[in-house]
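## retry 2 of 3
previous attempt timed out at serialization; input unchanged, resubmitting
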Amino acid sequence: MKRVTLILLTVLVLGSAAAFILCPKQAYSASERRRLAGMPKLSADSLLDGSYTGKLETYLLDHFPLREAYRGMKANFAVTVLQQKENNGIYIANGHASKLEYPLNETGVERTVQMVRSLKKSYFADNRVFYTVIPDKNYFLAAENGYPHMDYEKLFALLSDGLDGEADYIDILPALTIDSYYRTDAHWRQECIGGVAERLFADMGCETAEFDIGSYEQHKIENFNGVYRGQAALPFPAEEIVYLTNETTDNAQVYDVESNSIKAVYQTKLLLDEKSLDAYDIYLGGARAVLNITNGRSRAEEADRRRLIVFRDSFGSSLAPLLLEPYDEVVLVDLRYISASLIERYVDFENADILFAYNTLIWNNGSILKK
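## retry succeeded, writing output
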């Protein structure tokens, strides 16, 4: 019996080693939405300071044969056998996967508030300025299912006090439910945020105060797996992404400052790119520092053009195309990728409406925004 066990163990070890050597190495993990570790370079310095062994261990773990299967088995064991309420910080409630995000970081909120105040003082002291708060999924799920969460009531109070007299608050919460979001991802579904656009239009005084989703054509992309599905390593049915088009979005042009190129509103070609980690990037190509979207249907003279500048995060990628109807130009600025001190080189603030549209996690962590 011992001999059989020894033989099986030897076969397992040698088989795993052979599989590791022979199997092609992947550059990134589609399920986890991250790049995998590369083989570290061996040097005398890296050996002496111990960094080589640490990097080698990470590399071996990232490229272990059947790694995804082992991750799935570990996650299922933790949740079904050990009865853990979360795995890798991801929990399942009401048919949705969500990530634990807490507690409230008052210092982080203050930093974000000071960023807004500083930007207004420097660039648009006389403009109309608005802000809104995009709730994360925990706002709808955590409390009723017994999970820890940030103090949302206090977050809203801190923003109200800090931005009083600086920016007008637009409440979009009544326009959202948990089903406005993907089940396996952090983001909201574009086809479910027409009410958000309508509230923004109304409070910003747009002539087009109603959002007619019937005027848009819906395009569906199958087999979307959100970031939480991969991070949790738990089985979850695939979803579909829907993006909305009409004459306005079809004729709009998107100028990408980083690449100095003109693009379409929806980057469907990214679905064919094996290096693209997130199908959600079809909305405006994903995270970019500055994007200038021009409404192709506009016939307004330059002096009469209505412009909106949105300081945004990733949620703004799917929202922005829906804001084009009443505006001739919509400019998106993501301060996670460009310093606030540089934006005047690329953005003209004159006579523009200003909207800060951040999700709760950004409002809670101002250090992520570049000064």
